[in-house]
Amino acid sequence: MINHPCILILPLLLAALSGAVAGDYLIGVGSHDMTGPAAGVNMMGYANMEQVTGGIHFRLRARAFIVADRRPGPDGARFAFVNLDAGMASQLVTIKVLERLKTRYGELYNEENVAISGTHTHAGPGGYLQYVTYSITSLGFVPQSFDALVTAIELSVVQAHDRLKPGSIFINTGDVKNASVNRSPSAYLFNPPSERAKYQTNVDTLMTLLKFVDETSGKSIGAFSWFATHGTSMSRDNKLISGDNKGAAARFFEDWFFDNNGSSTFPASNAEQSNVARASTKQLSRIKATGGQACNKTASRESKVRKNDGLRFVGAFCQSNVGDVSPNVLGAFCLDSGKPCDFNHSTCHGDDQLCVGRGPGYPDEVLSTKIIGERQYQKAVDLFTSAESKIAGKIDSRLVYLHFTDIEVALKGNEVVRTCPAALGPGFAAGTTDGPGVFGFRQGDTKINEFWKTVRDAIKEPSKYQVECQKPKSVLLDTGEMFWPYDWAPAILPIQILRLGQLVILSVPGEFTTMAGRRLREAVKETLITYNNEEFDDNTHVVIAGLANTYSQYVATFEEYKQQRYEAASTLYGPHTLSAYIQEFEKLAKAVATGDRNISRGPSPPDLSSVQISLLQDPSGDSPPAGVRFGDIKQDVKSRKFRAGEKVRATFWSANPRYDLLTEGTFAAVEKLENDNSDDRWKPVYDDDDFCLFFRWDSSSGDSYGIATIEWEVPEEAVDGGIYRLRHFGAFRTAKDSPVEYFTGASNGFTVS
User: Fold this and answer.
1) Any residues with CB less than 8 A from the CB of 549 and at least 6 apart, and which?
2) Domains of the chain
3) Which of 261, 300, 386, 672 is the most exposed, having the fewest neighbouring CB atoms within 10 Å of its CB?
4) Which of 83, 126, 549 is nearest to 316 (CA)?
5) Average pLDDT over residues 657-668
6) Mapping DSSP to helix (H, G, I), strand (E, B) and coil, where does residue 366 land?
7) Cβ atoms of residues 513 and 80 within 8 Å
């Protein structure tokens, strides 16, 4: 029997129109430097005014992926997901990014199908959020921080869009061991015993990973994973810009991928996968044996070129329901006695400031960051190399804006309650075991002493309605009713669902606690199955992308709210906040399941860019001391011979790093002397994006100059013997309006054996 050619072509045409067959996605990834100002800018996260940037541990990046139907024309659905090495997303950043994307692409990328999520590092520059509560410690709005984020997000999406190609997406899940603990276990115990009995742990240990494979070459271009643990391995005293444990995991993953492939591509054949898996096992064993050190020879100018070529592999570690989850897995102990802290209040002799969590590398916070990063990275490698389940199905997205200060919520039993204007309780001021807050406050306090009431009332006395609405929280800061000089807290919040076949991503504008996240995921999954059990079933994956699109602090369960630990005291919209989220996400999930697009978008959030106050001054001109030039050595390396494991250090006369952020560049490098065709030259081998090279900035010696310290921890392995030197790059202005000039300096050479 001979088939007519049209009969052979028909199935292919039907498959193309369905948009749901294997390989019928367009996939693209992108990555861009978003490090920001490395000097004098308050860090976002701990609200510690003394924690200002003073150098770079390793650089921050925006990492993006785009998935789209292969169908041509405007009917092809798509969405873009961006993961930031930042404390959180910002409503104003999101607004401005969408404006830029609209200028480039029209309505192709919009508020409904673009999600921007933060990893929650507490070691990045602040000043990029538009509400007063989140900009007090940064002395208001910092345009340089803001612009670095907006530009990096935009360009990461542009890269992903420009690299769209036919491909397949695989999904895999597995548990990450010993990378998280519950920092508010007493509050977790307030949840019903029957509910707690459904879970083995009081934190979510599951990692969900997507692997993106180019259909033409069969090689991987990226991987994005979601797992909950706080970005607080680096302490509130740290002043080096750092992606913390998730940024470290991404750096390790991307370097592992490059080292084990010799290029930015991943082999898809089973035999090649096995080879890479064996290589990864050896490398992970080596990292463990060297105490967590991870630094390889893929850095500096050479790697900057590789990072921006068309084959850049992107590995991102995204945040989830992280509210009560800490990376300080050894537990919380008293600084004075070394004994465990009080269980209910996390204090020592009633003092919240003495109770501090310990990471696995205690007392070395950099080592703790490495170890927690490695534990996530190791699981990601395992999931990546063993991923076999291919995603197929529709691409879809929904977003609505909600005026969260007054949502009517229908509870079971026909009880109707409401959310409240935003407010913070005294437990918020106590901070957490990751970063203690103000003396005189304790987690779990529901009363405010008369002194702090007087201070509060001088700022803004809460209304009677607010006092009653927020109970049992006592209102310490009535942020939802404070509007001078502009809004102190967000009132209009976005909630968003992105669908990729059997994967559903819930973009939430805050930090859900472990149990709050579990309830939301279960409610959404049940709704999807109820209204469309042909496309959704028990195998549907629902993940929470935390700190997305804007930031509105925490979401605790109704039961956890009763104890008023930090997370509950920071649940802005009252005891029924979680119920409101679940109710509104169920509506959105129903719309996704039924294909309903006739849903009200709701009120748009405000753009407060025109009223922002900026009190932090830009540097106005630098000049070195008499007799020296910027880049000159102040103190050279102390030895001419070093071995693996030792530290090499040199200091340079330097100018403020804010004159040029050297985006996709470096302030520091390690260079190796090599002979190329009888011509000696210095080749860069490490830069300030590497985990073993530190760039520190200190301006305490003078107003018009500073001291740059470059410190290199010589890796235990993967470093060749030879002659090396430290190199410093920088920029300066002699006056505020003068042109930017550039300088460089180098240490003497030294040998490494």
Assistant:
1) 89, 91, 94, 115, 116, 117, 494, 496, 507, 509
2) 25-401+491-594 (no CATH), 633-752 (2.60.40.2300)
3) 386
4) 83
5) 98
6) helix
7) no
What is the torsional sign of CA 212, 285, 207, 388? positive
Q: What is the pLDDT of residues 406-450, one digit of tens each?
A: 999 999 888 999 999 999 999 999 999 999 998 889 999 999 999
pLDDT band at 285 (very low <50, low <70, confident <90, very high): very low
Q: 332 with 340: CB under 8 angstroms?
A: yes
The gap from C-alpha 653 to its chain's centroid, in whole angstroms, comes to 33
On whether the CB atoms of residues 116 and 82 are closer than 8 A, the answer is yes
Radius of gyration for the chain, computed over Cα atoms and rounded to the nearest angstrom: 26
Name the DSSP class of 592.
H
Residue 62 to residue 151: CA distance in whole angstroms: 10
Q: How many helices (H) and strands (E) does the chain have?
A: 16, 33
326 classed as catalytic: yes
Strands 39-42 and 78-84: unpaired
> Do 339 and 212 form a contact (C-beta atoms < 8 A)?
no
Alpha helices in 461-604 (DSSP H): 464-470, 514-531, 558-563, 566-569, 577-594
Contact 419, 407 (CB under 8 A): yes
Q: Which two tokens stand for residue 74?
A: 């405007």
Mean residue pLDDT across the chain: 91
How are the residues of the chain apportioned to helix, strand and coil, as percentages rounded to the nearest 5?
Answer: 25, 25, 45
In 3D space, the residue among 62, 88, 37, 61 whose CA is nearest the CA of residue 153 turns out to be 62
User: d(Cα 335, Cα 735) in Å, to the nearest integer?
Assistant: 46
Return the ∠ at Cα 265 (arms to 263 and 267), rounded to 5°.
115
Do 628 and 653 meet the contact criterion of CB atoms below 8 Å apart?
yes
CA end-to-end span of the chain? 73
Q: Which helix (H) or strand (E) holds 371?
A: helix 365-386
Q: What is the pLDDT of residues 185-225, one digit of tens each?
A: 999 999 999 999 999 999 999 999 999 999 988 999 999 99
Q: Which two tokens stand for residue 232?
A: 């607080």
Separation of alpha carbons 63 and 86, rounded Å: 11
Question: CA nearest 173: which of 227, 209, 199, 222?
Answer: 209
- Using alpha carbons, list the distances in angstroms from residue 732 to 75, 582, 624: 50, 52, 10
Catalytic-labelled residue, pool 326, 368, 570, 747: 326
d(CA 100, CA 80): 14
Q: Which of 236, 232, 257 is nearest to 369 (CA)?
A: 232
Q: Is 573 exposed, middle or buried (0-12, 13-18, 19+ CB in 10 A)?
A: buried
State the pLDDT at residue 565: 98
CA neighbours closer than 13 Å in the CB half-sphere of residue 331: 9
- Identify which of 11, 42, 120, 12 has the alpha carbon closest to the alpha carbon of residue 434: 120
Q: Which two tokens stand for residue 151?
A: 């530009």
Structural contact between residues 181 and 128, judged by C-beta atoms closer than 8 angstroms:
no
Helix (H) or strand (E) holding 12: helix 5-18
- Pick from 43, 439, 40, 41: nearest CA to 238: 43
Peptide bond into 436 cis (omega under 30): no
> Which of 295, 278, 309, 271 lies closest to 381, judged by CA?
278
Q: What is the DSSP letter of 421?
A: S
Classify the phi-psi angles of 142: left when phi > 0, otherwise alpha if psi is within -120 to 50, otherwise beta. beta
DSSP codes, 694-709: EEEEE-TT-SS-EEEE
| Residue in this structure with the two tokens 């279960």, named with its chain if needed | 522
CA–CA dist 269, 220 (Å, integer): 11
Q: Of 390, 338, 631, which is closest to residue 502 (Cα–Cα)?
A: 390
Q: Is 445 exposed, middle or buried (0-12, 13-18, 19+ CB in 10 A)?
A: buried
Q: Which of 344, 353, 564 lies closest to 440 in space, CA to CA?
A: 353
Contact between 430 and 537 (Cβ < 8 Å):
no
* Selection from 31, 97, 36, 82 nearest residue 61 by Cα: 31
